[in-house]
Amino acid sequence: MRSYLDFEKPIADIDAKIEELRKVTADGESTAISEEVTRLEAKSAKALQDLYGSLTPWQKTQVARHLQRPHFSDYLSGLIEDFTPLAGDRKFAEDEAIVGGFGRFRGQSVCVMGQEKGSDTESRLRHNFGMARPEGYRKAVRLMELADRFDVPVISLVDTAGAFPGIDAEERGQAEAIARSTEACLELGVPNVAVVLGEGGSGGAIAIATASKVLMLEHAIYSVISPEGAASILWKDASRRQDAAMSMKITAQDLLKFGIIDSIIPEPVGGAHRDPAAAVARTGDAIAAALEGFGNMSRDDIRNARADKFLAIGRKV
Q1: Quick one: how many helices (H) and strands (E) in the chain?
Q2: Pairing state of beta strands 213-217 and 263-265?
């Protein structure tokens, strides 16, 4: 069953009317009612297109967090063949918030990793809502080191509200683990491509998104802190989250303008959750195009180009 966001109420009302009319015609065909259904479907599609063509940053935040939005596992099953997962950081434990391993992407061997939020209560708890502890980032380092050793490109699929902020994570060196993972991204001699699928939250995202090419889905967000967190700090009022979202420049469109990301992946009208298969396919095409851009670059060239990319952020031309 489709779930509607608060700002989608006008569309929800139209779709509800369509469903009512369809029930009326279920037992018998009515030309007049069928024509009305067709008219309402066109009206709904036009309203959806207009609405999603002018979303505010806070509305994009809601779309990025939509529970029915495709997650890491959906992209993994849709894009990667012969996937072999690797578990554990070889230091403390296995962290299922970050899933990673090796497989084939359109015939090419790749290392793929990313945050999995889960799709139901059981899986969300198992994956800790995509918020990794230190062992998750140390597993990411292990994966990247293996990929670098065997000249395998790395694909990172980012979708997290942030690294887990619990006491146990801090006791085991959360900040250091994030820093080591970021460093491992920068030191890779193979191409790495990161895609922000939904939420790109703080160091939890940067730890695996410091890539040669950083892509974002059209309605994803990427920020140093959540709008609610920023509002709580700036105005001592989390209810001003919309003001914070507007000021923070967290949308793909703003980040492309500032050179933080390299390209935007268009989503199906109404967001990736309305047509997950199309969103996955478009993401696959974008990743393939990004990987092709490296051609026969040497390891040093790849490493230097990545460093230059991040050093250039924020500099005036």
Answers
A1: 14, 8
A2: parallel
pLDDT at 230: 92
The least confident of 6-15, 195-204, 271-280, 296-305 is 6-15
Question: SS3 of 63, please?
Answer: helix
Question: CA nearest 209: which of 189, 190, 184?
Answer: 184
Q: Residue 39 sits in which domain range?
A: 6-54
**Residue-level pLDDT at 23:** 77
Whether residue 277 is contained in a domain is answered as: yes
Write the secondary structure of 163-201 as one string of H (helix), E (strand) and C (coil).
CCCCHHHHHCCHHHHHHHHHHHHHHCCCCEEEEEEEEEE
> Could you tell me if 96 and 239 lie in one domain?
yes
**Same domain for 171 and 35:** no
Q: Please indicate, yes or no, if residue 317 is contained in any of the structural domains.
A: no
Question: 234: helix, coil or strand?
Answer: helix
pLDDT given at position 317: 47
Same domain, 192 and 260: yes
